[in-house]
Fold this sequence. Notes:
By secondary structure, chain A is mostly helical. Chain A has 3 helices and no strands. In chain A, helix 1 (3-23) runs antiparallel to helix 2 and helix 2 (27-52) packs antiparallel against helix 3 (58-88). Helix content of chain B is 69%, strand content 3%. Chain B contains 29 helices and 4 strands. In chain B, the strands form 2 sheets. Chain B has a two-stranded antiparallel ribbon. In chain B, strands 3-4 form a two-stranded antiparallel sheet.
Amino acid sequence: MPLSWYLVLAALLFCIGLYGVLARKNAVAILMGVELMLNAVNINLVAFWRYFTPDLIAAHAFVVIVFAIAAAEVAVGLALIISIYRRRKTVAADEINLMKW
Amino acid sequence: MPTETLIWLIPLPPLLAFFLILLFTRKNNALSHTVGVVAAATSWLLGMLVFFAAVGIDHFGEHPFHSAIAWLPTGETVFNIGVMIDPLSAAVLFFVAWTVLMIFIYSIGYHNFGAPKGDHDKPGLPPHGAEDHGHHVPSVEPMYSRFFAFIALFAFGMYTLVVSDNLLTLFVGWEIMGLCSYLLIGFWYAKPSARDAAKKAFLTTRIGDVFMLLGIVALYSATGTLNFHEILRNENILHMLASSPSGVLGLSAAGLIGLLLFIGTVGKSAQWPLHVWLPDAMEGPTPVSAMIHAATMVSAGVYMVLRMFPLLSAGWHHGDPLTTTMTVMAFFGAFTAIFAATIALAQKDIKRVLAYSTISQLGFMIAALGIGAYVAAAFHLVTHAFFKALLFLGSGSVIHGMEHGVLHTGEHVDPQDMFNMGGLKKKMPITFWTFLIGGFALSGFPLITSGFWSKDEILADAFANHHYALLITLSLAALLTAFYTMRQITLTFFGEPRTKAADHASENKLVMTGPLMVLSVFAIIAGWVGIPEHFPVIGGLLPNWFHDFVGSTLLEHPHAPDFSWIPLGISLGVALGGLGLGWLVYRKAGSEDPLRKPLGPVYTLLENKYYFDELYTKIFIRPAGVIAEKFSYWFLDRKVIDGVLHWIAQNSVNLGLVFRDRFETPVISGVADWAANSTAAIGRVLRKVQTGLVQQYLLLVALVAFGGLFYYLFTVLR
């Protein structure tokens, strides 16, 4: 299988994630969109590693860091969302406009 | 202790008393007068020690007590101040010490020490009396301690003046007395008349003081020293001053300086035309009047010209025609003597008569000095101090007794008006006898009283040196003196009481009568030290000690006038004639002056003191007021100064407005406002972006990222 298949898959996945982030109102769904985008990046990383530098370990390291960041992001993000929900009884992103002028 | 040290100490106790009373004992009357009297007694004791030490020294005039310290550096030299007692100041010290002490003691009684506090008495007003077990009794002076403080300062001024060895410290004492006279004449400051009198005394004497200061300055610039001994006993300096022209009115330098100093005396000793303050000074308490009239201030004026006599008469020798300055003095003295004596004829107030009498007697002294009768002038100064202090304290005693009567009867009469008195001889015997002695001394009652000897000496000197105009003037003045003195004694003490108050007057306590008795002794014996040597019968029994002693102050021992029957006859005639006439005219006087009808308008003129107060009001005070109002205030202040200031202010405002409109508002504010406004406008535009929706921000980020990517792909990579 050529590399481009993986890259296309990753691009599709990224676009789905981006769309989810920009279009969804639910903050949890936005967070899921971010996770999809991170996964797309991971696919790219793994694919490039397999096709170009299979005997090095740097890509694995990057992937592991991305996992860690994703996990941390979800932990913090969900905590924020729960906190917001407790105060405002909503998780709709367009209703949480505290920073508006 | 050496005598010089004692002299330094003489003025200090009263000064100390002044501060002690004001700072510590003010609340306690008994303590205050104790401090005052003890201070006066200490100075008296020191004064007596110094006096008797001085008397015991031969040729004392050549070697006076003198001690000096360096005071002010003046360029290359140093100005020394110090103390000096020579024969003249010893004599003055003697009478000052006695009279001051007597006045202090007398003041205790005069201010009703021990009497209850008045119910309505206020500080600044004489006490009105109090209720005590249903009786009206005198009340204690509300500002009792303050009086003793001030009078102590007064004594300090006089002592300083007497012991100082130079004109500058003499002037310091002189001015301290000026201040004290102001404070004490205005002692009852809540009375408008007392306030006015205080101001009048201060300002009038100041006129003289300014000229005197000019004289002092002129003397210092001419000789480089103000020390008496260096100037007055130095032939070279005196000759230099007498021979160098001053450029004013053809006077020599000595003449001009002498004239300027003499004007100081005219003010201080209340000579015409600056006499107006002294009668008004009667507004103060009577001990103050005695202090001013006998012990201190007016004596200081005469003392100063006596002191400066060698300068005043520089270039004149016995027998020469008088110098201009001396002529001026003789004229002013003689004129004042007769002028004030005539006014005294028509005064009703017992103290005012004495006030004019003082002016008149001081005129005698000045006139005597003017004709070169140095010793006679000094002699009259000493005797006059004693009997005038006695008379003033006596009049205070009379007034006090009358006030007692007024309080007792509740009658509304003036306790100082002699026409409300009469018959006090029986009520107040001690006051009567002492007042009689004082009055006779003032009149020059022959042989026994001191006033006779000193006045006779002046007349004898005038006769011996052929100053006949002066002799006639002074004799007339002496006649009037005897006349008004007898008028005063007769109206006050003889006949029937004219009011119920006089009927109920009573003798005062020993604290007041005691000083009277002491002073009356001096009023008699003070004259015996100066009996001329060739006087018939009693002449030569006692040597003419005073002449030898005081005369030795001068470089050239003054010549005693030869005895002549003519001045003696005149002297006897005027004294006895005046007294006799006074007795005849007034022994049956009612409440109206018997002289009023025969004298007619002249009496009114005298009663109103020749309208000098009115005249001065018209020619000095009113114009001064007009100048102050119209020129200084309205023209100079309001128009010129305010005008200039307003013009500057208006122009400054206009300039400010121009700056504001042309520069500040458009340029500085404009730039600042523009910056602020544009920032605000940008903000207004930009804040639209701040929706608060995180997705829009992300969209923006995404768009920028894609835009950047596309730009990269289509421009950079191509």
